[in-house]
Amino acid sequence: MERLLLNLLASDSATIQEATKELKKVLQNPDSVPVLCQLVVTSSNPEVRQYATLILRRRYTKGKYWTKLSIPVRTEFKKIILQALEHESANLVRNSIAQLIGVIVKHELPTNSWPEIIHYVQQLITNERLENKELGLYTLSIMTDVTPDAYTSHARSLVMLLAQTLSSLQSLGNPAAFYILETLRHLIPVAKHDETTLHTYATMMPLIMTTIQAFTETEHNNFAIQSFELLDELCENMIVVITPHVKSLVHMCLTIIANKSTDELLKVRVISFIGWLARLKKKALVKHKLVEPIVDMLFAVMMSKPEEDDDCSNTDNENTVLTSATQTLDLLAMHLPPEKLIPHLLRHIEPGLRSTDDYVKKTSYVVIAVLAEGCAEYIRSNYLEFFLRCICEGISYPSPVVRNAALYALGQYSEHLQPEISQYSSELLPVLFEYLGQICSYIKQEKKEPHAVGRMFYALEMFCENLNERILPYLPKLMERLFDILNADTSPHVKELTLSAVGAAACASEEHMLPYFETIINILNNYLTTEPSEENMCLQVQAVDTLGVVARSIGEKHFAPLAATSLDLGIKLLRNTVDPDLRKSLYGLFAAISTIMKKEMAVTLPEIVEYMIMSIRSADGILMHFKDDEANALTVYDDLSDTENEREDEEEDIECTDNEDDNDEEIDGYSVENAYMEEKEESVMALKEIAEHTEEAFMPYLERSFEEIFKLINYPQEDIRKASIEALLQFCINLSKINTDEGKKALLKALSMFIPKLSELIRLDEEPTVAICGLEAYQTLLRQVKSDVIAGIGHKEAIVNCVMDVMKDKTACQDQEEIEGIDIEAEQDGLLIECAGTVFSHLGRVLSAEDFALYFQTMLPFFLKRLKMDNSEAQRSFAVGTISECLSGLKHMTAAFVSQLLPTFLQTGAQDPCSEVRSNCFFGIGELALYGKEAVYPHYPNILQTLSCAIAKETDAAARDNVVGAIARLIITNYSNLPLEQVFPVFVEQLPLKADFLEHKAVFQSILTLYQAGVTLLQSYIHTLLKVAVIILHEEKALDVETQNLVMEFIKSVQRDFVNDWNALFTELPPEVVTNIQRIFS
Which phi and psi (to 5°) does residue 448 adopt? Predict the structure, then answer.
C-alpha cells in the first residue's frame, strides 16, 4: 500500500496512472481500509501519511460508504485516527487528520455513536499544556466547519467552554485564540436560535475585540484578517450581538488603521468592515458621533500617495486600501442622511481643493465624485453650483492625477445629477473637446495609447449621453474627432472607447445623427463582418452595442431598412460564439431591434428565445474554490470511489443521496465570473423588452420565460434580481392583454406566484434597490393590471403589509434599531418610503372606497408623523403628497377625514418654508374639496382666505399652479358656494399654467362646468380663455388625452356659440399656430 501511495506522489504521469488503476483494485477489498488507517499512524513519510488521510476523507465524505463498513472496522478506524491525531508532529498531516475526524463526526454524532470524540476534544481544550489546548481547539474548529448542524445539542456547552478558555488564555495573540474565534464563527448557524448562547456571544464581544487587536500586534497578521469573517457573520446572522458594541468596534477599527505598521491587506479588511457597519448600523454611527472620525480616517487613507502612481480612481477590481476606502465612503453616502455626512467631508474637501499637494487635491475630487449617487438630491439643493465650479477647474488642472479624478467626478455627476449638469455644457464641452484633440494628436504622433484615456472617455460619454439637443452645436466637431481616432492606428482599447462615445453621441442627438449615419454603419460593419482576433474581440462586442444604441436613437423609419439585415447578422454571430460578452451585446441588439420590427420579429423568436433561456439556465462561469489546493487531487479521489460495484449501487438506490455532494467538504466557496452574470442579466432584460414590443408574437414563449426567470428571482447578484422582477412584471402585463378565459387563467396563475414573491423580496431583501424595484412593480401592476392584482387569496394583505413594514422601518434593508431622538433617513431610505406610499395610493384605484378607508385610517398616523416640521423637506412633501393622492381612492369616504386633514393642509400650505410641500398642500386642499363635497362646504371661506393669501405672496410657479388647481376643484364641486365675481378674474389671470401642466385638466373641467351651467360671468373672459386653450394645445401642455379632449371640447363649444370671438382670435394667431391647430382638429 505504501509503495502505491509513493507512486501516486511521483512526478511521472504514467506511473501515477498505473498506481491509480492498481489502487482502485486494492480499494475494492474492504480489508484495505484498516491498512490505510495503519499507514496514517505508522508510515515514516509525512506525504504518505497525508495522502492516506486524504484518500480516507474523500472515500467517506458520503455517509453511505461509511455505513457499509462493519461496526468493528468503524470502531477500530475511529480509535486509530484519534491516536494519529494525538501523536502526529507534522502540521499539514495533523490538519488533514482533523478534517478526516470532522467528516466521520458528521456521520456519527447524529446517532451519538462516537461520544468519546467530544469528550476527547474537551479534555484537550481544558488541558493545562498550551500544545494540547491548541490541538483540541484546532480539531474542534475543523469539526464544526465540516458539519455545524451536528452540534445543535452541544452548541450551548461548547460556546460556554470556548468563552471560559478564551478568558483563561495568558496570551490572546496565539493560534489557540484564533481557533476559538473560528469555532465561534462555525457555530453561528446553530447558536443564533438559542437565547442563552446569543447572550454568551454578546458577553464575549469585548474579549473578541481584544483578541483581534492582539493578533494585529503579533506575527499572526493573517489571524486578524480572518477573524473579521467572524464579525461579518455576526453582522449578517446575529446583529443583536453586534449592536451594543458598535462604538467599541469602530474605535478598534480606527486604532488598527492608525497603526503605521498595520499590513495593507488587514487595512483593506478593516475598512470594508466599517462599510458593513454603515449599511447595517447607521443609526448607531450617528448616535455615537462616529461619522466624523470615520470620515477623518477615510480622507487620511485616500490622500496618501500610492506606491504606483496610476489612475487614481480606476481601481474597481483592485484589492487596495484606496479602493476599499472609496467603496466604504460610497456606502456611507448611500446609507447616511447627507446632512450627517457632507458637512464633515467639506472640512476636508475645501482645504483639499486649495492644497498644492496633488494627492490631497485628487482625494477631494474623488470624494466629490463618490457622493454623487447617494446624496444627489441634497447636492442638487445645496452644493451643485459649488461642486460643479470645482469640477470645471479640476478638468483643466495641469497635473494628470488631479485632472483624472476631476474627470471621474464629471462622469459621476453626468450620470446622477441630470438635467442640471447639462446646463454647464458651454463650459465643459470645449475642455473635453480640447482633450479629445490632444488624444488624436498624441495617437498620430506616438502611435500608442495615452495614459488614463479611459477617464476622459468616461466623462465625455456620460456627459454627452444626456445632453439631448444641447449637443447639436458641438456635434460636427465631436464626430470629426471620433472618426479621426477610429481611422488612426491606435490600440483596440481606444477604438472600443471611441465606438462607445459614438453611441453616446447618437443617444443624445437622435435623428440629428443622420448626416453621419452611413459612415457609422460602414465602420460598424467592418467590425461586425470580419473575423476578430483575440485582441480585437472587444471591438466586435462594442460594435454590436453601438449598433443597438443607434437603432434605438436614429429614428424608427431611418433604421427600419437595416433592421432585418442587422437581425440576421446578429443571429449568425450568436450561432458562432461562446463568448459571454458578445452574447450579452447581441441580446441587447435584439431587444433594440424589437422596438423597430415589433411583431415582424416573430419568425426569428424561436431561435433567439432559446438562446436567451439557455443563458438564463446556464451555470457557465461558476468557479469552485477548493480548500487546501485540492482541486487537482479531487479527480484522483473520485476515480478511487468510482468502482463498478458502487456504480451499480448508485443505479439501484437512487434515493440514497444523503443530500450530500461528493465534493462539498473540499469546496471552500463559489464565485461567478462577471461576464457570465452580465450575460444572464442582459438575457432577462432583453426577453422583457422583446415581450413588450412583439406583444402577441411573444405569446408562445410567455409561460416558459416566466418559469425560467422566476427561478432567478432570488439570485445572489442584486442586478439579476432586479432584472427578473422587471421581466416578470412585463410578462404579467402581456398576459393581462389576452382577452380570453385562458389568458385570464394564465394571468392569475402568474400573479399567484409573483405577488407573494414580491412581498418576500420587499420585506427580506437586504438591498434597498431590490426592495424599491419590488414596490415599483406593485405600482405598475396596480396601475395597469388593476383589480386582478388583488383577486388572489392574501394578495391585498401582502401588499398592504409590505407598505406597513416599510413605514415602520421593519424591512431587512432598513436599520430597525430604535434609538430615541435619532430618526435618520438616507436618500435611498426616502425613496423606499416614497415608493411604498405610491403603492398605497394606487391601492385606492382597485379597492372599494369603504375597504380603502379602513386601510387609510391605519396608515394615516404614519403619514402625519412625517409632516412635522422637524422632519426633512422630502419627508414632509412625501407625507402631504401621498395623503392627497389617496383622496381619489377614498371617494365619498373622504368626508370622514376632512376635519382631521383640512386644518393641517391649510396651516402647512400657509406656513411651510418648502415650496414643494406648499404645492402639495394646495393640491390636497383641492382634492379634499372635490371628494369631501358637502363636508367641505362650510370651510370654503377659510379655504379661499388661504388660497387668496397664497396667490398674493407665492413665488414658486408650481405652487401657484396648484392654488389655481384648488380653485378649479372648488368651482367643479360647488361654484354657487363661491363669490365668483371676486374669484374668477384672479383665476383667469393665472392662466396658462407655468409649471404643473397636469393641473390643466382640473382648470378646463371647471371652465366647462361654468360654461355648461350658462354662468354669464364667463362671457367676459371667453376671448382670453380661448387664447389660453389654443396656446396649451399648440405648446403641447395638455399632458394626456383626457386633458386634450377637455380643451378641444371648450374650443369647439366656443366655435359653435361665440363665432365672432373665434374668428377674431383666429386672425390674431401666428401662421404656424393656425396650421398646427387646424392639424389637431382635423
Answer: -150, 170
- Residue 340 one-letter amino acid: K
Range of the domain at 830: 713-815+825-847
* pLDDT at residue 310 is higher than 70: no
Cell numbers standing for residue 908: 402647512
Q: Is residue 1035 part of a domain?
A: yes
Distance, in Å, from the CA atom of 1 to the CA atom of 38, rounded to the nearest integer, reads 10
Quote the CA–CA distance of 118 and 124 in Å, as a whole number. Answer: 10
- Angle of CA points 1074, 1080, 1082, to nearest 5°: 100
Q: Grid coordinates in use for 906?
A: 391649510
Task: Examine the domain organization and report whether 690 and 567 are in the same domain.
Answer: yes
At 507, is the secondary structure helix, strand, or coil?
Answer: helix
DSSP string, 224-258: HHHHHHHHHHHHHH-HHHHGGGHHHHHHHHHHHHH
Instruction: Give the torsion through C-alpha atoms of 975, 978, 982, 985, to 10 deg.
Output: -20
Quick check: helix, strand or coil at residue 846? coil
Which among 339, 424, 343, 432 is positioned nearest to 389, based on CA atoms? 424
- For 810, how many CA atoms within 13 A lie in the half-sphere containing its CB? 9
Are 927 and 1027 members of one domain?
A: no
Could you tell me the three cell numbers for 964?
Answer: 389655481
Lowest mean per-residue pLDDT among 50-64, 358-372, 803-817, 901-915: 50-64
Residue type, 122: Q
Following CA atoms 776, 777, 783, 784 in sequence, which dihedral angle do they give, to the nearest 10 degrees?
A: 150
User: 197: how many CB neighbours lie within 10 A of its CB?
Assistant: 21
Residues 6+ apart with CB under 8 A from 454: 311, 314, 493, 497
Q: Report whether the peptide linkage leading into residue 450 is cis, meaning its omega lies within 30 degrees of zero.
A: no
- Residues 560 and 681 occupy one common structural domain: yes
| H or E stretch covering 571 | helix 556-575
Of residues 133, 121, 43, the one with CA closest to residue 88: 43
- The runs of H, that is alpha helices, within 627-717 are 631-641, 644-652, 674-694, 699-710
In tens, the pLDDT along 651-708 reads 333 233 344 444 455 555 556 678 899 999 999 999 999 999 999 999 999 999 999 9
Residue 842 domain-assigned (yes or no)? yes
Q: Rounded to whole angstroms, how far apart are CA atoms 610 and 593? A: 17
Measured from the Cβ of residue 1051, the count of other Cβ atoms closer than 10 Å reads 22
Type of residue at 364: S
Q: Write the DSSP assignment of 442-471 as a string of letters.
A: HHHHH-SPPTTHHHHHHHHHHHHHTTGGGG
SS3 annotation, 22-55: HHHHHHCCCCHHHHHHHHHHHCCCHHHHHHHHHH
To 5 degrees, how large is the angle CA 1037–CA 1038–CA 1043?
165
Residues 897, 1018 within the same domain: no
The rounded radius of gyration (Å) of the Cα atoms in the chain is: 35
Q: Which of 950, 981, 1012 is the last residue of a domain?
A: 981
Contacts of 589 (CB under 8 A, 6+ apart): 544, 545, 547, 548, 551, 566, 570
Q: Cell for 54?
A: 486524504
Q: Please indicate, yes or no, whether residues 806 and 739 belong to a single structural domain of this protein.
A: yes
Tell whether 1002 and 922 lie within a shared domain: no
Instruction: Report how far residue 74's alpha carbon sits from residue 199's, in angstroms, rounded to the nearest whole number.
Output: 38
Task: Give the pLDDT confidence of 237-253 residue by residue, as tens digits.
Answer: 999 999 999 999 999 99
Residues 583 and 693 in one domain: yes
Phi, psi of 532 (to 5 degrees): -80, 150
Q: Are residues 7 and 106 located together in one domain of the fold?
A: yes
DSSP letter assigned to residue 822:
B
Distance of CA 838 to the CA centre of its chain: 20
Domain boundary at 112, 136, 164, which?
112
Backbone phi, psi, residue 670, to 5°:
-125, 155
Domain count, the chain: 6
User: pLDDT (tens digit, 9 = 90+) per residue, 536-582?
Assistant: 899 999 999 999 999 999 999 999 999 999 999 999 999 999 999 99
